[in-house]
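Example 4.3 (complexes with small molecules)
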Amino acid sequence: MTLTATLLLVTLIGTLPAPDLVDDLDQAGDAEFVGRQLVVCWTADGVLAHVTDVEQSQGMTRVTGRDGSFVIGEGKMIEQYAGGVRYLEMAPTSEWRLWDGYAVQDGNSVTGLRESRTVEVRQGSSLRAKFVLDATTAAPLTTEVYQGNGSLYRYSTFLEFDARGDDDMVDMDSMPEPDYRETASAATVPQSAGHYWAADSYVAPGGVQVFFTDGLFRFSVFEVSRKSDGGGLAKLGTVDIGGNGGYHRAYTPGAVSVFWRTPDLAYVLVGDLPPDHLVEVLADLPTPSRPALLKRAWRWAFG
Amino acid sequence: MHLEDRLSAYLDSELDATQQRQAEEHLVECAECRTELSSVAEVRDQLRSLPVVEVRAGTFEDVAEVVPLRRARFRPMAAAAAVAALVVGVGFGVAGNQSVPLQLNQVVEQHVARASSDPGFNVLQVQAVANR
Amino acid sequence: MASNEAIPTWEQVATDYGRVIYNFAYRLTGNRDDASDLAQEVLVRVRRGLATYRPGSFEGWLWRITRNAFLDEVRRKQRRPTTELPAEDRSALVTSPTPDDVLAETRLSDEMQAALLNLPYEFREAVVMCDVVGLTYQEIADAAEVPVGTVRSRIHRGRLMLRDALEAG
Ligand SMILES: [Zn+2]
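Answer. The structure with zinc ion bound is encoded below.
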């Protein structure tokens, strides 16, 4: 889809409440910088925190942490580790837009690490996210994500920030052929969950990935075989989320992962959405359950 | 007045709700405390990821098998075992077909790869993959 | 552990806590010989003590035993009447790891271990109980028989000292 067509479409749908945020996102994507970022997340399993080195150049972002170095951008993910390279590339995707339930407000200018200004995103009457954007590059120097009840869920901030580019982030000439992920369709995952919509679906190892977003947060639901153990998540104890038991959940500072089984399939959800959104989303997805005894007997008898 | 040892208590979930809110309000305002928080968070993270040392054989002669802790509450060693389990990953049995191995890493990476197509703020999305 | 729960046998304690007691000992002493000796000693004391143990804070009781066993061991080895290990012992501990250690450790964790061994005992203990064993501040306070506020201060100062040591190293 061309840029003009996208703008036209966005205008037609009438979801253009935040032209500033669109500009900011575009500008932030082009920002060149090298820095060090702290991420703290207050989860049901305790406070998680990590510090990583971050650099961004030419639309690609590299994060280096304890687990290695990752470069992402433009639908590509490159992981370089001692034993080699993993290079993932996604089929072309649908265009980004922001949910019209969010209201974006420009806040004050502030001077912290650098000259900057704030942008607040409200959902109804409550503050959902707050960005402190670098005045010159629009890079998000500080980000706060809030739960519906007003408590802080995730806080990330640059401890060091230097607006300069590094042209040699990845030597693309030496990259192997990417592991290319074609689009696909998933039969059992609905087209919307909570206020999130299914933007794209892809082939995934052992199943199908459905990518949901509301423009501010995003998560993927992987529909896989019931025999799957969710990459190890099934080994964790079950928790109750939104009144349903049978979920296995794990947090990192940047994401939550949930695994559950239904009588026919299993699902892995991974994303950066806040916990109250997670409850709403899970309510609209297939819920955890075991095959009913009668159904199992029926299947056994009649296939 | 700076947060000082409340920073550690904050990371360890040892503050009550009021103190936690006060600490958050202070952190948003105070660069000095954010820097100290990050130092402490980094050291804490390194301590919690120290390798678990296996008990030398014969230390508990009469006990057949020493297994990890059975605790519901967060335990770094139990968490380390859980993380190890996540990283090891187990093959997904694809009904009837060849089994395609999938690790949680790969799920997270494929999610982040797609997320990076959206404009801007890559840095926020990539954090999902940085510490799995 | 709730007071209506059954008192565990010492075998159960070895099974449930052996590994974490061993790791606690290893991080405090920095070598596997001492860690083995200490873990054994703790289990001997647990077996002896269980006869008179009354349901209450089992964790507090167990870690008080572990801590006292460690302090007694330090004294027994005549390292010094105080609880702190002398500098020459520390360097010996750090520079002569067994092959097992070499296999298990990365460079970063070696540096962290060396930094831990240089902390004064009460800070090392608080940090290890919190971040290696995973005890709450209250459990650490019970074990070390000091107020919770003291625990909080020791953990924070201990972590800052570790940061300084790692930055200097
Ligand atoms: Zn302060």
